[in-house]
Each structure stands twice: as structure tokens, then as C-alpha cells.
Design brief:
Helix content: 40-55%
Number of strands: 9
Strand content: 5-15%
Distance between the termini: 41 Å
Structural class: alpha+beta
Radius of gyration: 23 Å
Strand order of the largest sheet: 5-9-8-7-6
Length: 497
């Protein structure tokens, strides 16, 4: 979008928050870059320059605005909508792969050379993978500086910087303030987003996750809580809580819906996991979606329009662990929600790793494929055919034969899942929708979806419904959420506080 100058100028002059994260506005006269909704008086058009990423603006020599905090804006919805190389690379960078494995590790996961990835990212985003990861580290550093009292050396390490000097230089360059000045500014209640920063205990961070309005929390949190696995997930004091398996350690997160943000409280055993944990929580709640674009298209169908108008901004509840969700999808085949939770809870008790929950109530991590690979095929109380399916799925995940991670190829993942015995179209598509994050995944064989379609006067046979749903592309996963909402099921209701 940054190449459409007229459209960008109109968005900046209107202070339109819908475009935050889509592009960034740099101002030649001040040397700063802002989000489109920055509350300051818009600069003259001739002094505006537009960039596709914060990293590109930083590379061009601009520093982040202290008022609107462009580095903290919602991410571009493109990276969750698209399945091409650039989108896959951006999802992996957000998941911390460059910080942990470098650009060669990123290239190895994507199956391309480092030079090819660098070239494509530069062409589309104006910055390479190292610069994009650097911008992400700077945002993590700012968050740790402003929301706690950790020593600066520990913050530098936790944010992924290789040295204190690099940390200091990057913070000064990006924010035009030293780390100590950033902390003093936050302590005075003048942090860049106009909100008083919270004081955090070591290992515990409280922050706000921004999103593009509108957002309907009902199906989002209702679905997560209704299907929650005991010991791993829970609803408590108005917040969805769950345990997290992270690259450097464990975590527990509490996510509470608020009118203009999601309140997030993270307890981590290793602060190096902060960036990854935030990225996974945003992905879980689909916070980088563009609800205006989704709802605008779905409203063009006269039978869907009343559903959208009644409760706009529905998101697709996703997952923090794609392999976990795939296992749970198999456990949930042809059984009730309660039975699926029971099966998953038994696996957790038998094979899950214990966690220390500061608030109490959560007990385990969901077991990963490596733990489940040693599963006794005769142990789960499932029909023999489903035990076989579960065993084959776990073996394929543990061996790396199926990649469902942030940088996976959606088409290839679908094909490999479908090749396993006992995994049919419904399982493939529900994994694509909630684990892979494909916004166009569709479940025409789902009984709840077909029942809703019939009640609305839509075709209810899978073939006819698929044909009708072609008009909803590329947002068919969101259409599924609106159709499911016609049923009075717990997944469609925000739990009581």
C-alpha cells in the first residue's frame, strides 16, 4: 500500500487507525516516522514519505515517534493472509527464528537460499531479515525498559542483543532516547502511547495488545474456553489463561478482553521468550486481522449481512502451538466437546510437563510430539482406527515429516495431513483454519455449519455450499465463525466473569 501515495495521504490526514501497521509515514522535516493515526497535526504532503515497514523507515534514518509509538502498532494483516515466501518469512521472524538461528536458519526452514530471501524482503518491505529482526528487538527492549525494573544488561540479553553497546546504540537510534531516559520517561507516566507503564516483577510482564477495531470477543474467548484442556487452559477472573511451551522455557499467559485492547499478563521462566510469546498470543487471538475488509466483503452476501451487522469483528480463534492443535483435532473427531477435553486432559496428565503457575490452577504444558511419540498405541481410550491416526500423526510431527509451524507451506501441509490414515477433509481444514492460520479455510462437511446454512436458506450439501462460498473468498474461515454463531453453543458466548 505504501506505493499508493494518494491513498496513504488520505489515511494520514484522516488519522485512520485502520491502516496502522499497513504502512508507516516518515516526516522529512522532523526525521521521525509515525503510524497513520498519529494524533499530531499531519505534516505537509511534500514532507511525507511512506515505508512498508518500521524496519525500512529505521534503515532510512528515521526514528520512532514518541507520541504514537509506531513500533507498537498492530502487525500488517498481510502476513496472516498470505502464503507466499515473504509472508512465511515474516511469520518466522515474528516467532524469533532469526534471533535464535540467524538468517541461515530462516533460509533452511523456508527451503530457499539466504540471498533469495534477502532479495524478496528488500523488494517488498524495504529491509532484509536482519533489519526486520532488529526492529523487533528494539520494540521488545522498549517494552522491558518501560514495564519493569530489570537491569539494562538483563534487558539487552532478554531482547536478543549481542552486546550492551549494540543495545544502547539501537535504542538511541530508533527512539532518540537512551535506555535510562526511556525508563525515566515511562516512570513519569509519559510513555509513548500516553498510558502509564505497569511495574512488573522479574519474569512477569503486563502489557496491552492492540488490535484493529471492531473486535467481537464472544466467539474468540468462548471457543477457547469451551474447548479448554484441564490443567493447560482455564477461564478465571474474566481472563483466558493457558500455559506456553517456548524456545527457552515455559510461560503462563492471562488474556483479558478490554474495550480497546487485550490486557496481557505473561509469566516467563526466561525473558528471552517475551517476543515469541507476544507473537503467539497475537496469533492465537487473530489480532492482526483486518476486520473492516473481512466484514465488508461478507456483507455483500444478503444472507450473511444480518449476521455481520449483529456482531461485527469476529475473529478466528487460533492456537499457540500448531502440533498441539493437530493432536487435539484428531482427539475431537466425531465426539462431543466434553469428550474431546477429557481425552486431551488424560494425555496431559500422563505425558505433560509440569509447570509452576504463579496464580495457581494450571498444572502442565500440553505434551509435544516428542513426548507423545512414546505413547502406547493401546493406551488412549479411543477406537482402534483413531488410535492409529493419532499414532501416525504424532510420528510424522516428531520426525518433521509434517510442518505446521509459522513458516509452513499451507498447501504442502494440507497434502501431508490428508495422506495420513483417518484424516479426512474436515480435520485437514480445521487444522488449516486454526493451526496454519489460513483465512480461507472452509469446512463444508461440518454438521454445525450445514445446519446453520440450512436455517439461513443457504445450500446445505457440501458441494453446493462450497460453490456458494466462493463469493466469500478469501475470508471463508471468517464466514464459518459467523455461521457457527447462529447456534446457541458455549463456543459462541463470552464466559461469565
Amino acid at each position: 500500500m505504501h506505493t499508493d501515495t494518494d491513498r496513504c495521504v488520505r489515511a494520514v490526514q484522516a488519522k485512520d487507525a485502520r491502516f496502522d501497521g499497513w504502512f508507516f509515514t516518515a516526516v522529512l522535516t522532523t526525521g521521525i516516522y509515525c503510524r497513520p493515526s498519529c494524533p499530531v497535526v499531519p505534516p505537509k504532503v511534500e514532507n511525507m514519505r511512506f515505508y512498508p515497514s518500521a524496519a525500512a523507515a529505521q534503515q532510512a534514518g528515521f526514528r520512532a515517534c514518541k507520541r504514537c509509538r509506531p513500533d507498537a502498532s498492530p502487525g500488517s494483516p498481510q502476513w496472516n493472509e498470505r502464503a507466499d515466501l515473504v509472508a512465511r518469512a515474516m511469520r518466522l521472524i515474528a516467532d524469533g527464528v532469526v534471533d535464535r538461528e540467524g538468517v541461515p536458519g530462516l533460509a533452511g526452514r523456508l527451503g530457499y537460499s539466504a540471498r533469495q530471501i534477502e532479495r524478496q524482503l528488500l523488494a517488498e518491505l524495504g529491509a532484509g531479515p536482519l533489519a526486520i529482526a532488529r526492529a523487533q528487538r528494539a520494540q521488545t527492549a522498549r517494552l522491558l525498559i518501560e514495564t519493569g525494573q530489570l537491569p539494562m544488561a538483563e534487558i539487552a540479553f532478554a531482547a536478543g542483543f549481542s552486546s550492551i553497546r549494540t543495545f544502547n546504540d539501537t535504542v538511541r537510534e530508533v527512539f532518540a532516547l537512551s535506555p535510562s531516559e526511556l525508563r525515566a520517561r515511562a516512570a513519569r507516566g509519559t510513555s509513548g502511547d500516553g498510558r502509564t507503564a505497569a511495574t512488573a516483577a522479574t519474569g512477569t510482564i503486563s502489557l496491552r495488545l492492540p488490535y484493529r477495531a471492531p473486535l467481537s470477543p464472544d466467539n474468540l474467548f468462548g471457543h477457547l474456553v469451551a474447548t479448554a484442556v484441564p490443567g493447560v487452559e482455564a477461564w478465571r477472573d474474566g481472563a483466558y489463561r493457558r500455559t506456553l511451551r517456548l524456545p527457552y522455557g515455559q510461560g503462563v499467559v492471562a488474556l483479558r478482553p478490554q474495550p480497546d485492547h487485550i490486557a496481557c499478563r505473561l509469566a516467563l521462566t526466561d525473558l528471552r521468550d517475551l517476543t515469541i510469546a507476544i507473537s503467539r498470543c497475537r496469533r492465537l487471538l487473530d489480532l492482526d486481522a483486518d476486520p473492516v475488509a473481512v466484514d465488508e466483503l461478507l456483507r455483500t452476501d444478503p444472507l450473511l449481512a444480518p449476521l455481520v451487522d449483529k456482531d461485527p469483528g469476529r475473529r478466528v480463534p487460533r492456537t499457540v502451538d500448531a502440533a498441539e492443535f493437530a493432536v487435539r483435532a484428531v482427539l475431537g473427531q466425531q465426539v462431543s466437546t466434553a469428550a474431546a477435553r477429557t481425552h486431551a486432559g488424560r494425555l496431559v496428565l500422563a505425558h505433560g510437563e509440569p509447570v509452576d503457575d504463579p496464580a495457581g490452577g494450571l498444572t502442565h504444558l500440553f505434551p509435544g510430539p516428542e513426548q507423545l511419540a512414546a505413547l502406547d498405541p493401546g493406551q488412549p481410550a479411543l477406537p482402534r482406527s483413531r488410535r492409529t491416526t493419532l499414532t501416525r500423526l504424532v510420528e510424522a510431527l516428531a520426525a518433521g515429516d509434517i510442518d505446521l509451524g509459522a513458516g509452513s507451506d499451507w498447501d504442502e501441509a494440507r497434502a501431508r495431513l490428508a495422506a495420513l490414515p483417518g484424516i479426512g477433509p474436515w480435520t485437514v481444514e480445521v487444522v488449516a483454519m486454526r493451526a496454519l492460520g489460513d483465512p480461507d479455510a472452509f469446512l463444508p462437511t461440518d454438521l454445525g455449519l450445514r445446519r446453520a446454512a440450512q436455517e439461513l436458506g443457504l445450500p446445505s450439501t457440501p458441494a453446493a455450499l462450497t460453490a456458494r462460498a466462493a463469493a466469500w473468498r478469501p475470508w471463508r474461515a471468517y464466514a464459518v465463525q459467523y455461521l457457527w454463531a447462529t447456534d446457541d453453543h458455549p463456543i459462541n458466548h463470552l464466559p461469565a466473569v
